Amino acid sequence: MTFYLSVGRVCQQDYKCFVKEQMNSSDTKKQILDIGENLLLDRGFNGFSYKDISDILGIKNASIHYHYARKSDLGTAIIVRAERQFERWAERLEIRKMTYPQRLGEFCSLYRRFLDRDGQVCLGGTLETDFKTLPAEMQAATRTLVASMLQWLEGQLCEGRNAGEFAFPGKPRHQAVVVMTCLQGILQMVRATHSSYFDEAVDQIMLMLQA
């Protein structure tokens, strides 16, 4: 059997080697993305370098630059991936037969996962902390991510209040800002206090909104 690639005719064994190399390249790219995100959540964008990633993976910096020429390219890819993951999460969540308070509880659980990962802060929180020093493309991606999450939360609060499952004064948009500010802020606060404060804050959010 003969296989054809853009470089011309090659044997089946060569093709298998080519596919393996492509898969390894794809795996490396994802690993760089995963480790970059982990360092970003731990230290902030200005707190790590490509050397930190290369040391963890045991590869050369040039290998990272091959996939992400600039650090801002890596940062933007992390944010874009997070936004897409949130959109998929929201779509799955809305298919389930959940009450609006249950959906809000699931939203709060997204933030709880960062706390469970050695006290990391959420992506929005760490990007907003570094915002003034971020490259322009990362600032734009951050705005899009935060706006997407706020829009979803506002919609849930609005629909929940209309359904009689939430009760709160003011506009749903303003309440969404309060909820997200609380969740982002408590992840910062528990770093210097106690992790139990997170659950206490979530309990208060639920009490504040209950009908």
Description:
- By secondary structure, this protein is mostly helical.
- Helix content is 73%, strand content 3%.
- It has a domain at 71-211: Tetracycline Repressor, domain 2, CATH 1.10.357.
- It has a two-stranded antiparallel ribbon.
- The longest helix has 32 residues, at 12-43.
CATH superfamily of the domain at 71-211: Tetracycline Repressor, domain 2
- Give a short account of the largest sheet: 2 strands, antiparallel
The stretches of 5 or more residues where confidence is low (pLDDT under 50) are 1-23
- Structural class, from secondary structure content? mainly alpha
Q: Given this structure, which CATH class of the domain at 71-211 is correct?
A: Mainly Alpha
Q: Estimate the helix proportion, in percent.
A: over 70%
Strand order in space, largest sheet: 1-2
What is the molecular shape?
elongated
How would you spell out the order of helices and strands?
EEHHHHHHHHH
* Straight-line distance between termini: 68 Å
Would you identify the CATH architecture of the domain at 71-211? Orthogonal Bundle
Nearest-angstrom radius of gyration? Answer: 21 Å
Q: What do we call the CATH topology of the domain at 71-211?
A: Tetracycline Repressor, domain 2
Q: Could you tell me the strand content as a percent range?
A: under 5%
Structure annotation, total helices: 9
Mean pLDDT: 89
How many DSSP E strands? 2
